């Protein structure tokens, strides 16, 4: 990777979608960094010190200063490494606001629905699955509007919203394999299904995606 330097470190956990979100951003921007894997059952002193409020990954430490929360880190990467690679956020202020809105929608609606569908009670799981389907249908429409007929939410190249949503693809594929389903069904969500294929095929994405078989084993053990 071209940019960055020895003063940039990321604390993450290989199966965490939030941590993957940051790794995707760094990879797409071409920023070099040191990666440190965290054991979330035995968190390091560095993690506890760097994120004393939530004690969660990811944390990006730049010049000794920690930046926490994945979406905030994405924006920090864009600003701190403006001279490296292409910006994730659009140049137009309105388009930036739209991208931020949909990224927040992903976290507040889709991620919460996926968590409920995976870890809730039987009744909660069914409700969670409905929420996931509804959120994805909404994002299908958002992709139609944002992409303007191009492969990514960011247009011709993957950007902020692609990364915000793309970090969930590994878990989507794992659930597909475990449950024998197709969450992003091309027959009902053709744009998102095509987007997922295009995003997953990027070299920068493949370089940091977790191994699917390992992730399936991890999910089955939870």
From TrEMBL:
Originating organism:
Brachypodium distachyon (Purple false brome)
Q: Does the keyword Cell membrane apply?
A: no
Q: Does the keyword Transferase apply?
A: yes
- Read off the Gene3D superfamilies from this record: 1.20.1050.10, Glutaredoxin (3.40.30.10)
GST C-terminal domain location, by residue?
92-222
User: Which CDD domains does the UniProt record give?
Assistant: GST_C_Tau, GST_N_Tau
Q: Which residues form the GST N-terminal domain?
A: 6-85
Which named protein is this? Glutathione S-transferase
Described function? Is involved in the conjugation of reduced glutathione to a wide number of exogenous and endogenous hydrophobic electrophiles.
Main location class = cytoplasm
Task: Identify the GO cellular component terms for this protein.
Answer: cytoplasm; cytosol
Family, per entry: Belongs to the GST superfamily.
Question: Which biological processes are named by the entry's GO terms?
Answer: glutathione metabolic process
Q: Where in the cell is it found?
A: Cytoplasm, Cytosol
* EC number in record: 2.5.1.18
